[in-house]
Amino acid sequence: MTEYTYFIQDGLGNIKIGKSNNPEKRLKVLQYSNSSKLILLLTINDISEWDSHIKFTKYYIRGEWFKPAKELLEFIERKKIQLKEQKQTKEENVEKPTTEEVFNTTTIQITKNIKEKLKNIQEYPRETYNSIILRLIKESENRE
Q1: What is the DSSP letter of 4?
Q2: What pLDDT, in 10s, does the model give residues 60-74?
Q3: Phi, psi (rounded to 5 degrees) for 8
Q4: In the chain, where are the structural domains located?
């Protein structure tokens, strides 16, 4: 299971830096014993809880709570932006089908539809058979 470092802010602005496999669940547990509204500011898995505690030692209050210093708040905002950019990059890198692939897929689907309908056709004179195929092709084109 992935372990996350989370940053939760209390009603006074103080920030708890902790770790959990499920930060949302941890927030609910903490909220139960806290009189002010808690807000999950950030969840990351690229920096450990310990490293975060070391980085912000000068803002330490007690336990896992830190003062909402400008440096800490800016760190949280930078990480949020990085995560948003990473998400956008992943979405942009999803391969989109080429026009040729779309055309081929559509052609295959039309062909399958026509073959399915033609299964029920018995032996017809050639002229009738061709007119049925043309009608089915036009019907398929009209549906698109």
Answers
A1: E
A2: 999 999 999 999 999
A3: -115, 135
A4: 4-92, 99-143
